[in-house]
Write a structure and sequence with these properties.
The structure is a single chain. This protein is mainly alpha-helical. It has one domain. The protein has 4 helices and no strands. The radius of gyration is 31 Å and the shape is rod-shaped. The mean pLDDT is 87.
Length: 150
Amino acid sequence: MSLAKRFTEFATGVAHATGRPSSFAICVVLVVVWAASGPYFHFSDTWQLVINTGTTIVTFLMVFLIQNTQNRDGAAIQAKLDELIRTGAAQNRYIGIESLTEEELNELRERCATRARVEVLDSAQEAADAAQDAANARAARAVEEASGLA
């Protein structure tokens, strides 16, 4: 398994785990225990440094994990919307693409964009063919009318 895939799974797992109410409750308990231990440690600089260091490290790491998860979710939503706009009806294969790596999502979005460009060209060609057919029909009627008058 690639490093990107492993990191994606890890980031998703951590984001889901830390977003649970029980995780928040654990953090509250830790802060309460730390605050209650203040008198025992005489509210020392070391006592303050423990909470400051701990929260700084956790915050620093969580920012990157949450950003990674948000980037993938945003790209997946965009790809889904692109497909809805392109076809007018969503395809089931787009369900669950949030778990793809960033590279896989970029490839998927590029395929959607390429298909959309091809469809625009096809539509333009069909419109040109229809216009040509209509012009040929008008010309044929004009010839018939002209030969009927002669």
